[in-house]
Records
---
Amino acid sequence: MEFGPHLILALLEGLVQASVLMLTALGLSLVFGVMRVVNVAHGEFFMLGAVLAHVVAGWFGAHPALGFIAALLLAPPLVALAALAFDRTVLHRLGHDPERTIVATIGLLYVIQQLTLMTFGPEARPVTAPFNHRIAIPWIETTAAGLSFYFPWGLSTTSYKLFVVVAAFAASAGVWLMMARGRVGLVLRATQLDRETAQAFAIPVHQVYGFVFALGAGLAALGAVLVVPIRQAHYLMGGDPLLLSFIVVIIGGLGSLRGTVWAALLIGMSDGIVSVFFSPTLAKILATLLVALVLVYRPGGLFGAKPA
C-alpha cells in the first residue's frame, strides 16, 4: 500500500483512540477540576466498565445489538454508583483531602483489580459489536486529466468505529453543554472556584463532590463500553487509559475541559499514527516527553491558567 492510504488508516485508528481517550480524560479532568482529587483508580473504573459490558452483553448472547445496548445503558450507571459508594464511605470521611485521597484511590485500584481477577478471571473476553460493516474509503489522486478516485486494497474502516467516534463526541458535547449552559454546571463551577463561598450559599459541597466523582467514573466506563468491541475486556486493561488520561489532563491544563478535548485529540491521533508506523512503545515515550516539555515551559498546561 502507498504511504498516503496508509496514513489515512493510521489517522482513522488514531481518531477512534482519541475519541475514547477524550471521554476517559474528561472524567479525570472533572474530578480534579472540581474536587482537587487525583483519582489514581480512574483506569480501574474504565476496566470495570468493560468487564460489566461483557457480563451484561452475555445475558443477550443470541442478540448482539440488544446486548450492546443493554451494556451501554447499564454499565456506566453501575460503575458510577460504585464510585459514589466509595466516595460516601471513604473519600467523604477523609474530608476529600488531596494527599489522603491519593492513597485511598491507590488502594481502591488494587481492590477493584483483584476482585475482578477473582470473579471475572484472567482471560481477555470480547464483546460482539452490534454492527460491523466494512466501509471502503476512496483515495484521491491528481492526474493529467484531473482528480481520479479509486479504492486501494485494504483502505477501509468499519461502521462501528465510525459510531464510536460520533458517540464519543456527542457525549463530550453533552458534558460541555452541562458545564457551560446547565444549572448543574453552574453549581459545579461555583464549587470549583470557591468551596467555602459555595457552602455559604447553601450548595451541598459534599454531595456535589459525590456527583462529580460518580460522573467521572461513569464517563470512563462509557468510553470502555464503546471500545470493548474493538479491544477485549481484561482485568489489567486500566493501565494505559489511566496513563494517557493523566498525560492529556496535564497537557491540556488541570481542570480545563477545552484543553482536555484538544489534548486528547493531539495525543490520540499522534499515538495512533506513531503506533501504526513505528511502535506503541515509541508513541508512549513521545507522549511522556511532550508532558515533560509542557511542565517545563507551560506548567499550567496549554489551556490552563498561568501560574501567578
---
Amino acid sequence: MSGGEKVSPDVTFDPQAEIDPGRALIPSVMRLNERRVDDGFWPKIRRTFASVPFATEALSVWYCAKDEDTPLVAKGMMFAALAYFVLPVDAIPDFIAGLGYTDDAAVFTALLALLGRNLKPKHKDAARRDIERLRGEG
C-alpha cells in the first residue's frame, strides 16, 4: 500500500452524520459523541430551554454523564442520547413547531427508563439550578 492510499477505501466518515445506535458503546463512537456533546450541548440548551419541556432532564443526564462515578456503559448511552439532541439531523427536525422535539423527548424517556437509577439528587439539583439561572438570564 502506498502512502496515498486509504487503509479502508470503502469507508467514509462524516462526523455530522447519525451514528448507528448499535455502535453507541464502541469507545471511538463514545469519544465522538462526547466531543459532539461538549461542543454543542450548552449552546443548544441555552437556545431551547424555554421550548424544550425535558430541558431539566437533559441537563440531569448531562451532569450524570460527566460524573466520574457513573458506569461507563451508562455514560456511553447518555452521550449517545445527548448527541442525538445536539445534532441538527434527527427523525423529526427540531424546527417543526409542536413536533420538533418529540423524538428527542422519546429518546430521553427511554434512556431514563433504562438508566434513570444512575441520576443522583446532585445531578437533578444541578440541573434545576441551571434552568433557574437560564430563566434569570432570559
---
Amino acid sequence: MVTNEYLQRVYADLQQRNSNEPEFLQAVDEVFESLQLVVPKHPEWEEAGLMERFTEPERVVMFRVPWVDDSGKVRVNRGYRVQFNSAIGPYKGGLRFHPSVNLSVIKFLGFEQILKNSLTTLPMGGGKGGSDFDPKGKSNAEVMRFCQSFMTELYRHIGQFTDTPAGDIGVGAREVGYLFGQYKKIVNRFDGGVITGKGLTYGGSLARTQATGFGICYFSDEVLHNIAHDSFEGKNVIVSGSGNVAQYCAQKCMELGGKVIAMSDSSGYIVDRNGVNLDVLFDIKQRRRARIKVYADEVPGSEYHDGCKGIWTVPCNIAMPCASQNEMDEEGAKSVIKNGAMAVFEGANMPLTPGAINAVLEAGLLYTPGKASNAGGVATSGLEMSQNSIRMSWSFDEVDAKLHTIMKEIFKSCYAASEECGQPGNMMLGANVAGFLKVADAMMAQGIV
C-alpha cells in the first residue's frame, strides 16, 4: 500500500482523471508502492512535479483506421500511439493488434515500457501503440489493407529519432512487413531504424524473433543461480501462451534443462507430462496458425482442456505466465503455491494481478516482474536499430551473446537496487527503483518539459 503523502496525492489525481483506465492505474500503483522507499530522499522531485510529469504521457495519438475486407465491406477500427516518455531516448515500444486494446491498455503498456527500456541500459524512451483490430481469421490481403491504412496515419508521428515501434501481440513478421512497406512508400526513404522486428532481407536482426523468450530465461536463470543457488535443470515448467514469447521461452527453458509440461492459447491449454514437443507446437502455431487444441489430437499421451485459466492448477516447479496482462489472478497464484512451485517468472507484461503478486511474495516464492524479465525483446530491438544505423548485420551468436549480457546486467542492477532499499532479492522493488532512477535523473536535468 502506498503511504507516502506526495505519491498518494499524485495517485488520487490520476484516479480522478483516469477513472476508466484500470490497467493503467494498476501499473502506476505497483510502481508507486516501490518508489515510496526512495521518494522521501528526494524532496526536489516534488518541487519539480516529477511524479506528475512521469505519469502523464508526453503525447497521445488516437485515430480512425478504415479498411475494406475481402467481401468489399468497409470496416473501421481505432488506432493508438502513446508516446509516454522521451527523457533517455526516442519513444520505443511495440504495436498490439487485439480486440482487448483500448487507451487504458496502451497507457499501461507505455508506462511499463519506460522502466523496461531504462533497465536495458540502451538509450530508449517509452511508448506503445496498437489497435482493436484482430488479425486472427483474416486473410493476408485483409491484414495488408489494415496495416497500410494504420500506417497511413501513424507515419507522421514516428521516425528513427522520434518514435520507433515494433511488434507485440498480433503484430508479427507479416504485419511488420506490411507496416514498413507502407511507411517506406509514403516517405520515399529507407529508414530502417523506424520500425523493428523486420525481416532479415530488409534490415531485421538475427535472434530478434527469439529474443523476448530467450531473455526471460536468461534473467530467470540469473535469479535461480544467484538467489536460490539452483537452476532450471530437472524442473517441471508451465509456460502459458503459445505465441512468439511463449514459444521461445519454452525452447530456451528446455535448453537450460527444464521440462515444459503445459502451454495454452486463448481457448484452452494442453498438458504433456513427457514435455511439450516444440516441433509440433511450432508447426501448429507458426505454419498452420491453428488452435493449440490440435496438439492433443496429434501427440499421444497429451491432454487438452477448455479454458486457459485452468493451466495454473497443473502442478509444476516453475510457472512462467507469457500470455497477457492479468492472466494469473489470486486464485491461480494460490493453486501454483499449493502445488509446491518455487518460482513465478513473468514473461508477459503485468500478467499477475496485485492479489496474485502479494500471494506469491507472501509465500516466499521467487518472483520476477515482466518489466525486467521480458526486456530482452526491446533490448534486441535496440540492437536492431544499432545495426541499421551502422549498415551492418551481426551473427545470431553475436546478438544472442549481447542479449545474454544485457539480461545479466539487468539482474545486477535490479538486485543492487533491492539491496539499497533493504530488501535484497525483491526483484519487483529492484526493477521499479533501478529503472526509475535513471529516468528521473534525465528528467530533472532537462528542466520542466
---
Amino acid sequence: MNKQQALLGKTFSSSYMFAVEEPVVDVSQHPMAMLLEEFEDIYNEPQAGDIRQGIIVDKRGHEILVDIGFKSEGIVSGRELDRLGDEIAELRIGDEVPVFILREDKDGNMLLSIARAKAEEDWKMAEDLLNSQEMFTGIVTGYNRGGAIVRIGRVRGFVPASQLSSESQSLQVTDMEDDDDRWHRLMDTELRVKVIDLDRRRNRLILSERVAMREWRKEQKEKLLQELGEGSVIEGVVSSLADFGAFVNLGGADGLIHLSELSWGRVNHPSEVIKIGQKVKVQVISVDLDRKRIGLSLRRLQPEPWDTVSDKYEVGQVVPCTITKLVNFGAFARLDGDAIEGLIHISELADRRINHPKEVVSEGEAYDLRIIRIDVDKRRMGLSLKQALPAEESVEYDWVPVSPEDAVEVTEIHTPEPVGELA
C-alpha cells in the first residue's frame, strides 16, 4: 500500500480490477499512540540538575518567571537572583535564557537558577578546552600568594605561581610586607593560558600560562621563520644577554644578535651596548629553517664608521682614545665618540725598548694619540703614543764640531779657571 492509497483509504487488489473502500482511522486516538504521548510527557518532565532553555515571561522585583515548556512557569528568586548581580538589569521579557532545574517546591512550582545554568555551560566549555588543549586569553580578576585567578565565564580558574610565565613572574613584588599582595601588578592584565587540570566535583580548575606561552612561542616561531626574509627590518625587545651575544624577542620567537653584530666597534660584552628590556630595531641577516634559528644584526642599521673616516680624521691629528685590548705586538685603542679602533704598534708606545705593551699602558686607560697612518680600504688606522707625548724641553748650546785631535785643546780652552785660589 503506497502513501496515496493510504490517504484515500483505498487499496487495489492485484487479482481484481476493482477498488475496495477502507475506513479512515484517526491514528492519534489509538491507545498505543496515547500511551506513547503520555510516556513522552513523563520523559520530558524537568528533573533536578537538568539544564533547559526558557523564555522570560515576567520580571518582578523579587523574582523572574521563565517558561520552560512545563505545566507552569519556573521561578528564579531569592539567592539565585542575587547570584546574577548586575546581569539582572540586562535581562528583558522575551529573552531566551538557560536555566538550571533546582527542585519543585511544595506548591508545585519549579525553582530555577540562571546563574548555575551559565556556570554549568562554562564548566562544559572548560572541559572542551581541556580535551582540545586549545589556548585562550583571560583577564586576571584576583590573586593570592599562591598565584593568579582567571575566570572562564563564571568559573574561577587558578594559575599557580609555578605555572606563570617568566614575564609574569618578573612582575611579582618581593618586598611587600604582606606576602599575599605580591601578584597585585598582574591585576586586570591578560594572560594566555591552557586548561591543564579539571575536577568538577571538587570545583577545581587549574590553568597554565607557562605551557600556553611555550606552545604559542613555538607557533609564532614557525610563522616568523616562514615570513621573515634576509634583509628585513623588525622591532623587538632584548630578552636576555649572554657572553656571545644578545637574544631579542620578535613577538613570540627569539633571534640572536651575535657579539660581532652589536656594533661596528669592538664589544667585550653585550651589556656595553644594550640592556634587557630595551626596544631595538634589528636587521634579519639569516633564517635557518632546519635549525629554527634567526640571526640578527644591530650594527648594520647604523652608519659604517669607516665611510666617514676621511672626512673626520687625517694623518698627524692628535685624538683622545681609550685602550681596549693588549696583544703581544701592541695595543688597540678606540677613538672616543666613535666606533673606530686603531693599533698602537709596540714600537710606537715608548722611546725605549719594551717587551710587552702592559709595561706602558693598561686596558681602559685614556690617552691622546697621534694618527700616523689611515688605510680606509683595509679598515686600518695606525696610532702612536710616543709621537703624541709632549717633547721634553731642550737646552740650546753654541758649539762647533771638532776633531778628536783638537779635543784636548778645546777642553783646555773651555775649562773654567779656579776661583778663590792665591797665586
